[in-house]
Amino acid sequence: MASFLSDGTIRRFLRARNWSTEQATKALRETVKWRRQYRPDTICWEDIAEREDEARRVYIADYRDTAGRAVFVSKSSIKCKTSVKEQIKQLVYNLEILANSSDGEQEEESVVWLTDFRGWTLTTTPLSLARESICIVQNHYPGLIALAILSNPPRIFESFWKIVRHFIEARLKERAKFVYTDSPESHRIVADMFDLDKLEAAFGGRNTAAFDMDKYAARMKRADQARGASNGGRSK
């Protein structure tokens, strides 16, 4: 737990709570309690259910944006094969890696979250999953997300967003941007933020390479080693 309470983590919590030491301390205590119960630092690549399929749906990109921030990718077009519980575990696993890799590099807001909403339907994201995911991101990993890019959401998503946005804190809500690959303005935004030769075609980039599972698995295992994660008795 001592490694979690780094200077970078404390700064992120302070900024997320407008430098209120009282609120930041309360939030940190709640997160420490959650971490003792959930044990996110023990989750490793081998713990992720259906990992070879799920990693194609949700993954940490092997490139960064033009500001040097890590890129976290979600693709709604790929059908999920696991339970809400397993999806939350995978989210936490990725957040742990992102938080660990960013700590010390940047003081806050070191991740850009890219979501491809093509093929999204009301059954794609259960409200319970959305609500718990938002809670975890903003309560236990505050100040990590610099920008959330929602790419090509269908019109039906507007109704879902009107509900979900009530669960999102103002600071995080301001970081959500809607972009559309057929919009010249959106294309300019994306082109300014990313190397289009590396960015996936789904987001308006020129990268059409197939997902290399072997390379990704090896990268995740190296990330596990770097943060000292090991299976601490969790059921796989």
TrEMBL record:
<dbReference type="InterPro" id="IPR011074">
    <property type="entry name" value="CRAL/TRIO_N_dom"/>
</dbReference>
<dbReference type="InterPro" id="IPR052578">
    <property type="entry name" value="PI_Transfer_CRAL-TRIO"/>
</dbReference>
<dbReference type="GO" id="GO:0008526">
    <property type="term" value="F:phosphatidylinositol transfer activity"/>
</dbReference>
<feature type="domain" description="CRAL-TRIO">
    <location>
        <begin position="46"/>
        <end position="211"/>
    </location>
</feature>
<dbReference type="Pfam" id="PF00650">
    <property type="entry name" value="CRAL_TRIO"/>
</dbReference>
<dbReference type="InterPro" id="IPR001251">
    <property type="entry name" value="CRAL-TRIO_dom"/>
</dbReference>
<protein>
    <recommendedName>
        <fullName>CRAL-TRIO domain-containing protein</fullName>
    </recommendedName>
</protein>
